[in-house]
């Protein structure tokens, strides 16, 4: 009754890695299914293109103003 420890170790390693791989594969599949369900029943609202571009331009102007104010504050300090 001799036990080969290397063979037993390899068996446990393959078993453990197989279980982890199976779990991660199932988790990815479950996340994809949940994502499709959420996108199907809770779609993102689509804004009008002209309003969207106007909002994007206003956001850019606000960012530029904030950066300019921060630089001015840093230079006057």
Strand segment count: 0
| Coarse structural class | mainly alpha
The quaternary state of the protein chains shown equals single chain
What is the averaged pLDDT score? Answer: 89
Low-confidence stretches: none
Helix content: over 70%
Continuous helix count: 2
Using the alpha-carbon principal axes, give the shape. elongated
CA(first)-CA(last) distance: 82 Å
Q: Main sheet, how many strands, which sense, barrel?
A: none
CA-atom Rg in angstroms: 28 Å
Element-level helix/strand string: HH
In total, the number of domains comes to 2
Strand proportion, as a percent range, falls in under 5%
Characterization of this structure:
The protein has 2 domains: 44 residues; 31 residues. The model has no long low-confidence stretch (mean pLDDT 89). It is an all-alpha fold and 77 residues long. The chain contains 2 helices and no strands. The protein is elongated and about 85 Å long.
